[in-house]
Amino acid sequence: LIPRSFHSSTMSFSIPYVPKNPTSWGPPAGDEADDANPNSPTAKFAGLPFAPFGRSDRLGRAADFTSSYHAHQQRQRDRRRLGRDGEGANAEFQYKVDAEEDRTFELVDTAKAQTRRYVAPARKRQAMNRLKMLNAKQKREAANAGQPTYKNAPQRTRWNRPSGRTGGRGRGGRGGRGGRGGRFGRGGWRERVERQASVSVRPDWQRVDEFDLPKIAKHISNTDAPAEEQDLLWCGFVDQYNDSFDRVSTRVPVPLKRAENKEFYPVTTMDDPVIEKLAIDGVGNVFATDAILAHLMTSPRSVYPWDIVVQKLPGGALFFDKRDASQFDYLTVNETANQPPRKEDDDPDGINAPERLSLEATMINQNFSQQILKSSKTRKTFDLPNPFYDDEDDDGMEPASVAYRYRRFDLGDDIQLVCRTELHGVVKKKVGTKDNEEYMTAFALNEFDSSKVNLGINWRDKIDSQRGAVLASELKNNSFKLAKWTAQSILAGAAQMKIGFVSRNAPKDPYQHVVLATQFYRPRDFAAQITLSEGGMWGLIRMLVGLFRERPEGKYVIMRDPNKAIMRVYGVPPDTFESDDEDDDEEEEEEAEDEE
Fold first, then answer.
1. H/E segment holding residue 294
2. Torsion 392-395-401-404 (CA) sign
3. How far apart are CA 139 and CA 144, in angstroms?
4. DSSP H helical segments within 349-466, as ranges?
5. Alpha carbon distances (Å) from 311 to 413, 547, 574
6. How far is CA 136 from the centre of its chain?
7. Among positive and negative, which fits the CA dihedral 276, 281, 287, 290?
8. Which range has the worst mean pLDDT, 173-182, 205-214, 219-228?
9. DSSP labels for 387-403?
10. Pseudo-torsion of CA 107, 109, 115, 119, nearest 10°?
11. 392-421 in b/e burial notation, b at 16+ Cβ within 10 A?
12. Measured between alpha carbons, how far is 510 from 505 in angstroms, rounded to an integer?
């Protein structure tokens, strides 16, 4: 039996409002909704604020006073990126300040205002201190020498870094403005040098194309090496290499001798009788010399202006040539250095000017290539004589030890390239009981004045113990010249490349030199060491040949911009540069008549 008190204490249960929806699940919508009933969902929840949410949303803190400002900004960016919590979203849930209360509210700060002293960053303070020390030191030196002070110096030389260690690092030093090396690397600020073009562009020249040399070096396709390399002719002779030059050092240097009775022949492509005969016989359809090809192959590394003439004959044959009056055959000195040589006020004779250094380097290179060879008793003569030597006009001169090796390279796409290459000597080594012969090329690097070179290394101090450091410095200062020599050696098929290190007897004497060291290199191994891609070299030649094959017959000029790393191709009239050659011929005839 259930007690009577239990019935009196039980709670009553009222049936909730359940809307009728005979057509679907859930409360009805539209006209079927019972909006008049206060218990209906549409009337009960009308006007209730609703915030959209997602199940994947992460719940954050209601108030976070520890997170950084950047984290807050990142969260705001994330909300805007996801399209949630943007401007005007969830406004009903935001805290609202009463307008009357906000108008009468005023914050009073009774604390004493503190003035904050600006403190520069540590790196900037160090740079400023070094600059102050540099200014003070230069003032003391100027006062002792009676020269103008640092602040009174011309603006163009104010930030030039001294060549030696003394004098501080300057503004472009480590830790100064611009970080390590400053704006122009370790050399500090440089004065811009405006160079003149190697040949003046005339109004009747038409621009054919233009190439950005850095982009060519970076994006040129590394094509395959020639499918076939064939020797066509051998001319001239070569002498044997003298092994005693392998033992040359700074303790026992060898004076450089002048090859006064040797004749060198830098003959152009169109003036070569052998190439002319090969072109008539149809042996190839592209003709050039190793110097011109190597120059084009390594042109992205060049800095000084240059020009090369291209002639396309009616039959489609291409001749890559050079102007007779150009400076193409002269070597450059420190062309790719951070501060190339230029005419200085403290050099009245101009012995360190670019033109004089170029002439000096060319003379050293020719004399070195002949001095390291033995006498004519060990000479190796080829089937054909030197094609440029004339017995009637020898005047007591004899041709230099050079073998002209005419080679044909099959580049594919019906491109047969015929090239005249040069070899300077032969190296004989015994392998067992037999004498092994290897052909070689010879080149010379020259030191003129290490104090004039930025971060220059004195060869007499380093070349015996740290030859790698000397070579690394030369690779930086003469990158284009070394790459061109390497390309010439590869084209000639040389097994060895001899590089000599020649220096002046005295920094102020450009006429007396000594050989301090020599070194043999394998051309292809050396190319890999200096990051010279053989595939990129041939890819550049294929690109130029393809460009001219699509052009009509005529004469063209490839030239480098004197102040920008840009190579341009111009179409020129057929008689361009012919007047210069005629003037030279007339001068030679007048000189011959005067002698008679």
1. helix 290-297
2. negative
3. 9
4. 354-371, 459-462
5. 20, 13, 9
6. 38
7. negative
8. 173-182
9. TT--GGG-TT-EE-S-E
10. -60
11. eeeeeeebbbbbbbbbbbebeeebbbbbbb
12. 8
| DSSP output for 257-278 | PP-TTEE-----STT-HHHHHH
Task: Provide the H-helix boundaries in 372-454.
Answer: none
- State both tokens at 431: 């392998």
Torsion sign across C-alpha atoms 567, 569, 573, 574: positive
Q: What's the pTM value of the predicted model, to 2 decimals?
A: 0.68
449 contacts 352 by C-beta, under 8 angstroms: yes
CB 462 within 8 A of CB 469: yes
- Provide the greatest CA pair distance for the chain: 160
Three-state helix/strand/coil letters over 86-148: CCCCCHHHCCCCCHHHHHHCCCCCCCCCCCCCCCCCHHHHHHHHHHHHHHHHHHHHHHHHCCC
Helix (H) or strand (E) holding 254, with range, is strand 254-255
- Residue ranges in 146-247 assigned as alpha helix (H): 213-219
Give residue-wise pLDDT tens across range 450-491. Answer: 777 756 688 999 999 999 999 999 999 999 999 999 999 999
Q: What percent of the chain has pLDDT over 70?
A: 72
- CA-to-CA dists, residue 484 to 296, 498, 523, 557, angstroms: 9, 14, 11, 20
Other C-beta atoms closer than 10 Å to the C-beta of 79 total 13
DSSP per residue, 497-530: EEEEEEEESSTT-SS-EEEEEEEEE-HHHHHHHT
Phi, psi of 293 (to 5 degrees): -65, -45
First to last CA, the chain: 160
